[in-house]
User: What shape does this take?
Amino acid sequence: MFAWLPIRRSTPKLGTELSPGFESASERYSRHTMAIEIDRLSELLLQMADENAPGREFSAAIAELARTGRFADLQDVLPALVYDELWQRYQSDSATFVEEWQHLAHEMQQGFIQHSRQRLTSLTRLQHASNGHTPAWKAIQRALDGRQNDLLRAAMAAEFLDLVEPAVARATHLRECVVASASSEEADRYLDEATRCYFFALFTACAVMCRSVLEEAIKQKIPADFHALIRSRYRNAATLGNLLHEINNNLTATGISPGFPRLANQVNDIGKKAVHQGLLSEDEARACLQNAREALQMLLQQ
Assistant: This one.
């Protein structure tokens, strides 16, 4: 889709020595190119919104046909009921009719991005049954966008563009999570989701997923007989806290590093706060994720 975007194809290998003060070609390329490209994408989105805002062309066409005395041309494209109503309004005051539709076209163009964000928010938050009067231009734009979904498309694009730079900054706080032995596909997916939640500012969800990844990794790591004991004791519903309690009391039997429970308990504490006490801050989510990743490396070191 974005084939024209520049892609950094190589970076210095680990251990490569660079002379003091030397800036690699890839670093210089990134500094002068990628930050600019994000701005260009944002500008391109605004340009596309100006040119293709749903309803703008429709409203402008009605105004122009009415202004030039070709109102009857609308009869072939509008439902009869709609055409008759518009025709009556045009007949009563043609100048005002033209002005109103020109104004509608202008409002649809100028308010498109804000309206698109409101459209997305209407799906993510509770909506009161009576939200007051909806401006005519918004009602028309929403109706015309019923099948194209350009309002949602623009809102998603704008939101993701806003997330790029903060997500990059958060990613710089992490390093690869390298382990000696594998866990499970489910654990990998939990870790992937937890990390992406952190990147994209879903901090409370990040902590919840950190608990999930440790639960799954522990279940895959502990010996089969010990796993059977836990299943029986907790009726197949052992929480991370339950698992850590059992591990702490049976470190030798499980073969898990003595340092693991401390890190895992910190993850569990932040995870419980996320579930029961309220939204987390970015710092809390980052600490939780870093502890979870370090705990995984300790758990899977053999």
